[in-house]
Amino acid sequence: MAKNNNGKNTIQEIPKLPHGQGSISWIPERNKFLYKKNVNGHRKSVLGNTVKEVMAEMNRIEKESTKRTVIQKAVTLSDAMYDWLKIYKKPKLKKTSYDTLEKTVRSRIAAYDIGSMRFGMVDSDMIQKHLNMLNEEENLSYSTVKKCYDALNDFYRNRLAGGKIETNPMQAVVMLNRENIIKETKKIEFFDEEDIKKFTTQAALLRTWSKKPQYQYGFCLCANIFLGLRAGEMLALKWKDVDFIDGTVYVHENLQLVSNPLGSPAQVYETQSLKNYQNRTVRMNSNAKHFLELQKKYSGFTAPDDYVCCTRDGKHATVSYLSNNIKEIEKAAGTKVKSYGTHITRHTCASLYFKKGVRTELIAALLGHSVEVCRKTYIHFEEEQKKEAVKLLDDYEINYRFW
To answer: What pLDDT, on a 0 to 100 scale, did the predictor assign at position 18?
Structure first.
């Protein structure tokens, strides 16, 4: 028999529940009834003023838990992740970042067996085996596997915080070490001094009959060897961002291919602002300034809001246009490196900084990287820099001898 709120005896008898239905007890110090029961494998506790009240509340919890379990069992992991993308990530991320994350979910999770598994049935072992498979069977790079791991980690943390799951399977999952990744890290390609001379000489040629540039974007590409801009930053650059008097280039926008909500064409270019640490003012050396002056001299579009790298009708260039020019120039110049991607000029700029002994922190600021990303991207440059630094000690004269 339990007491009521006034401390008097109450006629409420504590029922003895059947096996498996938990137990109800009276807690004198709290003047409450306590109902404990296992619900779908999880221990639940309910406090109330009456036996009827705690039983009703426990019944509600059971129904809610059963309903959630049924929903989880009916939805696949990929379906749940697509909903998470649309509801939580799309409003938060830039279009390009969202497209990249959506592509990771689609190609690295939804396209495999784990994506078609019922959401509620996926456990830590399944996720760990999937990540291991991406490395051991698919031979994907560290960064690709890491993107998949990060997407799953972010997704399950969101589900846990929102009360959609009671335990997070990612807590037991570990990301693979770089040393255990089978696919070798892609080497950074860049022009050495000989290739820089060959490339810039060829890229700056004028046609003999028209005295017009032989390559539409040759001067821009040459300038970028000494500026180190990303392709999207080059495409977004306008003449109002270039200050020849002060010798600076203000980098603050990016032109990126994003999925087209209208469907056709599949992708369109969109101007985006840069992350805070990427906005920067880059000083032009004499070479960069020379080539940008040539670009302006021979361009038919030089108003402040005109694009520096523009087509013959004044529109912004595209990554493929720049890549095609690079391919043509490298072939005609006979460079040792044949890398047709637009990253070649940016990587070459980074290599020049490292060879001159510029601190990694400063290089990161000049290129718009975080220091951590700069070190990971150009780790072999930094290692060479360390070797050269140690060699400097070879010239140290010892004016004493050991006795």
So the answer is: 85
